[in-house]
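User: Sequence recovery, please. Input:
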């Protein structure tokens, strides 16, 4: 069987112009900003030891910060600055996607540029500088006509390193709303679509290698004083940029931006919403893989028009409530909280995606565990795994208070990998999600929560402030409300996670609409 007959390759190729163009755009902007800041600073600091040590120390510290954390930190900072700018000057700006990614990546590019520029300038033979001064050159002329040309090959080596770092780290900009080749990787990991993961990794690697080799031509041309090589490298870079940016020139901004968080169900629901908008004659695009707080802030600020969230997540995380309320009361109070931010709760989809403690069925039956209360008596000898945020969430604290849970070992995992770990016996209990199709795939069982320590998690559709009165948007989404039950959503999630072999999220979304559209 030809592996390239897999329809997921077609899905990957269809997104390439958009993802590659955005990746190149943000990388070039970040590298240009990094060079604009780093080169003058390096020139100023080259003969000032204290300033040189400070700059190199700062740039080195930046490199120790994980790329995803650095990118994520810029979004709330810029969001606050945008609010202040709007309040004080009446002019705001978008803190979503491109700007925070450019600023964070520019910081990442500084170290190799600073270090190599300073090293190159300090490596110029002092006798040549004295000779230049002896023939009457000013310090500026000496710098521009003697020092910089001689240091340029070393500086280019630093620029090459910075370019590769920026291109690689740009794949992590997806969770803050910047489309990039990282979209393939995040989507592939969450939906277990390894075609997308491999495609994204390969595309990013090829892009980095191509840019590195083109810059190497420029560097070699400067070192050997070969104008032909330097020009060839420069022309190649210009051609690459033009080729990747050209597909975006003819595109217009979509009328509606549909957001999605970083797990399989969200990819399916965002695709379903986008398909319904297009079926209603509205243009729409998706921005997927966003962090939980990032996506809510984006809809509140108008950068995202519509997305699906969960009542318990908003209640506990966004609005910092620890009290557990009945479903109807929680939804009513949540509407009031959202209204303060002018975010509209359009309605519920009809299913709940709640946190739940999940065990292998055979293991639970052997220990006679049917509920979390039963689990508490065995917890000291068992291990538990949760996603990246579960053990710092109020739900976990609530479970510990309600049941006195104390496990022998506690681990954090990629959400989809938790289910496989439970199925294979690597961990005894996981913090899963009630609508996840992988529960059936690995023959797991959801434990009852008789003390109601976990709040309701109804899937709800949220609209941005500027879309509150949008009749066309409401009409397009109305057929989805109350139509998706948990059994159907579990089947869709299983398909999205590769349960039927090779389904794209668009195909799963179409299947889901076919199921609910018949009701």
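Assistant: Recovered sequence (519 residues):
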């Amino acid at each position: 069987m030809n592996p390239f007959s897999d329809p997921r390759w077609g899905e990957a190729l269809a997104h390439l112009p958009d993802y590659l163009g955005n990746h190149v755009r943000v990388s070039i902007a970040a590298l240009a900003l990094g060079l604009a800041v780093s080169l003058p600073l390096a020139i100023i600091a080259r003969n000032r030891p204290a300033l040189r040590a400070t700059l190199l120390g700062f740039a080195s510290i930046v490199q120790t910060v994980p790329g995803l954390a650095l990118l994520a930190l810029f979004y709330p900072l810029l969001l606050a600055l945008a609010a202040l700018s709007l309040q004080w000057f009446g002019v705001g700006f978008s803190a979503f996607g491109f700007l925070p990614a450019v600023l964070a990546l520019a910081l990442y590019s500084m170290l190799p540029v600073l270090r190599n520029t300073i090293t190159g300038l300090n490596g110029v033979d002092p006798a040549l500088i004295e000779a230049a001064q002896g023939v009457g050159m000013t310090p500026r002329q000496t710098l521009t006509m003697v020092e910089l040309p001689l240091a340029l090959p070393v500086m280019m080596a630093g620029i090459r390193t910075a370019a590769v770092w920026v291109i690689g780290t740009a794949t992590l900009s997806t969770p803050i709303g910047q489309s990039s080749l990282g979209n393939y990787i995040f989507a592939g990991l969450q939906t277990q679509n390894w075609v997308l993961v491999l495609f994204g990794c390969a595309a990013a690697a090829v892009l980095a290698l191509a840019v590195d080799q083109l810059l190497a031509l420029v560097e070699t041309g400067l070192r050997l004083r070969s104008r032909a090589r330097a020009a060839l490298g420069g022309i190649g870079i210009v051609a690459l940029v033009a080729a990747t940016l050209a597909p975006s020139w003819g595109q217009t901004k979509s009328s509606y931006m549909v957001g999605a968080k970083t797990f399989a169900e969200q990819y399916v629901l965002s695709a379903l919403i986008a398909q319904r908008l297009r079926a209603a004659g509205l243009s729409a695009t998706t921005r997927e893989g966003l962090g939980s707080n990032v996506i809510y802030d984006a809809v509140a600020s108008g950068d995202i028009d519509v997305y699906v969230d969960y009542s318990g997540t908003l209640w506990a995380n966004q609005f910092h409530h620890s009290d557990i309320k009945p479903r109807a009361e929680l939804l009513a109070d949540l509407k009031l909280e959202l209204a303060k931010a002018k975010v509209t709760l359009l309605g519920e989809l009809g299913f709940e995606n709640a946190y739940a403690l999940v065990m292998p069925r055979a293991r639970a039956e052997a220990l006679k565990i049917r509920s979390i209360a039963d689990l508490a008596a065995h917890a000291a000898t068992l291990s538990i795994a949760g996603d990246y945020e579960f053990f710092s969430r109020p739900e976990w604290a609530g479970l510990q208070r309600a049941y006195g849970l104390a496990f022998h070992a506690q681990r954090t995992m990629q959400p989809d990998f938790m289910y496989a770990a439970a199925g294979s016996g690597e961990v005894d209990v996981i913090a899963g999600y009630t609508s996840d199709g992988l529960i059936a795939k690995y023959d797991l069982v959801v434990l009852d929560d008789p003390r109601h320590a976990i709040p309701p998690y109804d899937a709800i559709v949220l609209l941005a402030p500027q879309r509150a009165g949008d009749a066309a948007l409401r009409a397009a989404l109305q057929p989805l409300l109350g139509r998706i039950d948990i059994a159907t959503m579990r089947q869709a999630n299983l398909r999205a996670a590769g349960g039927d072999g090779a389904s794209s999220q668009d195909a799963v979304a179409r299947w889901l609409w076919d199921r609910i559209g018949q009701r």
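Residues 7-45 form the longest helix (39 residues).
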